[in-house]
Amino acid sequence: MKISFHTYSLKEEREIRVVLRGVPKEIPVDEVKEDLLSQNLPVQSSVCSLSGVKAEQPRKRALPGQCHNCQSYGHSSRYCFHSARCVKCLGDHGTAQCTRNKDTDGPPACVLCKQKGHTANYLGCPRAPKRAPPPEKVAPRRAPARAVSSTLSYARAAAGPRNAPPAAKNTSTSADDLSQLMSVITVIDTSELAILAKKFRTAANPTEKLICLIEHASLVEAIKNKF
């Protein structure tokens, strides 16, 4: 029916691909192949003059592979049934059948973006896949601010919601904390504290928060001296 399409190989049907590192050059490649076959490892092809002593998987590509038949990305030419397209020009033929001469026919052309000046396998092509940006670090979530009211002090609002009151370590420590808190309340203006809390909560950025603290510098200084 002359339908253009491409397929993918199943994971269990793919060939095992490994790199043997550390094999001395003096050992013939045929001996390495025979040893692998004796371990029931089918050898389709081999490359000599390897260095290192390690067997490892080939490095994965950071970008999708490109088909050498239709020049599209995301599948291989082995399972491609699209019409062949040249990597160097806009012709509907395979790259091996291309008769283009780089000296007389001018710059190459890309079949993906239809622009001249680069080949279809140029990673700077507008149609080429781009590397994904590194994931952004997620900032830790902060508890939502609580409004200051006549029954809720600024100190409690800034502390956030409390599920259960912490158990007191000892009576003397709790009494000291309460005494210190009462001494602070007696020297500061609670109405001014409420105004500062409201401004600080509605500030849009750190600069506005800093301005709020400067406007109420005397209050901040009084709290600082008491604590």
TrEMBL record:
<protein>
    <submittedName>
        <fullName>Nucleic-acid-binding protein from transposon X-element</fullName>
    </submittedName>
</protein>
<feature type="region of interest" description="Disordered">
    <location>
        <begin position="125"/>
        <end position="144"/>
    </location>
</feature>
